[in-house]
Amino acid sequence: MSQFLQSAFTGPASLPRHLRQLLATTARDVQPARWDYGTWLKFFDTWPEGGNSPDIARASIAYLVFARDASSAALAATLRSLAVQPENPAYAVLDPATGMAPHDAIDKLRADYIGILQAGEVLPHHATRTAACQLEQLGRPEIAITDDDHIALDGARENPQLKPTPNHALMLSGTLSRGLWLVKRSTLLDHGSAADWAEELRLSVWLARRRAGDSHFSGRIPYILSHRRPDAEVAPPDVLAAIVERHLDGHGPAILPIATSPLTFRIEDGGGGESVTAIIPSTLRKPESLRCIQEILTGTDHPNFDVRVVVMQPDPLDEVQAAATELLQRFPNVTVRWLKARAFNFSKANNDTASGLTSEHILLLNDDVAPIRRDWLRWMAAFLHDPRVGIVGARLLYPDDTIQHGGVIMGLSGLCDHAHRHLPARKAGYMGRAVLAQELSAVTAACMLVRRSLYERLGGLDENYPSAFNDVDFALRAGEAGHEILYVPQAELHHYESQTYGSHYAGEREAFFEEEVLRMRTRWADVCAADPFHNPNLALVSGSEWQLAFPPRTEILGR
């Protein structure tokens, strides 16, 4: 909980105010053992029955409920949950018996926002009031998604779905399309389409609004405002796949959906024509780095790909390096260059080599990574077909096939760190996010594909970060300039971490540590405090980033 806002709205009230304030001032990196969800709910999700109702402007909310069976227990439960809302909201039910189209029902619901529900999704008593207050806090976005959880057969709450800020790449998988959504009535009337399922309408209207232009039309309410019963109705994957396929026809990445749950993808036929130049800084002294570079050359099926290896050191190449150069230059698409410099600087090595390139994309690549799948680069390039995407990062595995890099979370470990570290590669991770393409704040330059035009416009990597943080800083600057940064797990490589240069702060580089950390904290304080792609109800301790935060970092009203 980052601050306490004065408001007429009464929020969660399970503990006295002074105890909450004490928890809020506790160091965020002091994380207790994994909290039982039931215990966490008692601390942070107990809400008053009433709450103040002063004369202030708030968005009005009505509800649209989809049902496949008008007599089902799932629908009855959803309607009971609407009946206990203190605001007594209007609602309409769409089921096969009514024969009413969504557009007609929405037209009759006179409210600022329409809450979209499927039979079996039930609301807590505070949902409407909380949503109305949060919509005001967010500046009344066109679409707001909320967190949700499940209700077990014994009635216990479980499996919280704590979501990131809505983003295109993750939206394509369908994983964000469940739970209560609040959509402006005018947006639904303009962009909604015929639908038989809540998920279908949610996904179609979000993607339609995305196609319309502005990227800042949706937001996230970080509270659990719906519960999913075991009998809740679920849209068939082929329904969602059809929506995504229509959307991707000329809009976004060069991929096609497969009707699985969540949706998966294949590369669209005919992709891979864009030119890519890989820049690999290396000492060319260790057999491991030579082997990795050779595996990049032999294990990549991209048809328009060349490699520039740069050796940055004060003296010309020695015999070992010359022999490695001769071996590599037997490949027709490889150039090895000596860059004279007193000390190694990863940023400068990439910047000097990038200047003068004419390829469409630049691939920043360590000399300690090697492909697992031959199509890794084609997957990365496919996502750059979306003009809003500026950077694509890969999924990197340790030699033991656990994850080394699954994207970067800002604020994790105090500043930033890799997500999913040491998760077995076969596991999907929290909400499937280890295996789903998604937008993040940053990715590692151990394997980073970037538009050359963007690289040049941003001035490349910041050479004041000679070893670490240059990639995170670059990605954050790209995001600041309006570009999306994606983690694409279909691009999968092994990372034999730091075999060439060792630790970022070993030896003479140790002196840079405190200075560079301070620069990062100062320049990127806001995103370190609140990474939009990491839910504030989740922890910021490496290895526990998908566990519940204690306390959450939400701005909780009325404490």
From TrEMBL:
It comes from the Bacteria. Pfam families: Glyco_tranf_2_3. Gene3D superfamilies: Spore Coat Polysaccharide Biosynthesis Protein SpsA, Chain A. This is Glycosyltransferase. It comes from Plastoroseomonas hellenica.
